[in-house]
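Problem 12. The chain below contains 309 residues. Write out its predicted structure in token notation.
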Amino acid sequence: MITAILVPLALILGSGTAAAATTTANTTAERTYNTWVWNVAGWTMNRASTTNGLITAITDSIKNRSADFAALNEVCWGQYVAVIQRLRDLGWPEDDSNFARFETSHSTACNGEAFGNAIFSKAPLGTALRYTLPSDGSSEDRTLLCAPLSTTQKMAFCTTHITPSNAIIDGKSINEQQLDEVHGLMETFNGLGMTVILAGDLNNQPDYARLNKWYSSSLNTPYNSANYGSYRELDDTDTRCAGYGETTVFDGDNGGPCGDGRKIDFIFVRENRLAGSYTGDSLSISTACDGECSDHRVVIGRATVDVSL
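Solution.
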């Protein structure tokens, strides 16, 4: 599948640029982006509700954190539509007709309506790139959803939600197979000259061996070592657990190598695209949804990156 995307993706990236290729091929610019991601447990904890406070919690946080990109995991279709409308009401997107994308993971999981992942961008988005990951044998499709900016085709934002299953399928953990597929796609994007920010729930912790191919070899701490990859995670400099980062799941969990809780939600950027410092954080879980809105925290990050124009 990774090979199959090369031609259509190259065509998307090349549209409208052929005439200027000789003069702009090496032109880059530094751009700073704020990224926001939340697994909202749209069905399991919110039962597809759009009136229990979740929509306000999502949209106020996106706007208040000055997000350029936002992603939702485990969101119901009706909640996605309600988020779009309220973001419009808040004046958040620059173009209120072309700033959101949804990808279905299950067509009826939210009391008969679709359930999946979504991305939002303050600036207009281009054609969505959608990939189905290897199946874990359940009725839920795991996916990678991406979209470039419409005016800067080589700057893209992606989200994914990896299965928690460790079932061995075709001789390998399905969790690792999905991670490897997403990693391969990210590397394909890089080979095409794209700068990509990936945000989502990976259902793995930073110190797991299966993420060693993700984290850059320049990251080597007591809490995250043996890495040989090319990516940095925007919270991997957190001094409370250097190389690992802050917990992203329910408060009170004392897991993780530093005993402060497990991190399973991430914002990754390839190291060769970073143009300066970066930072990440996770926020306390909102209690505005007739109680806690989710069992995950919102994760935010800020990074300056090089983008090909």
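Discussion. The chain has five helices and 14 strands. Students who got a different answer should revisit the alignment rule from Section 12.3.
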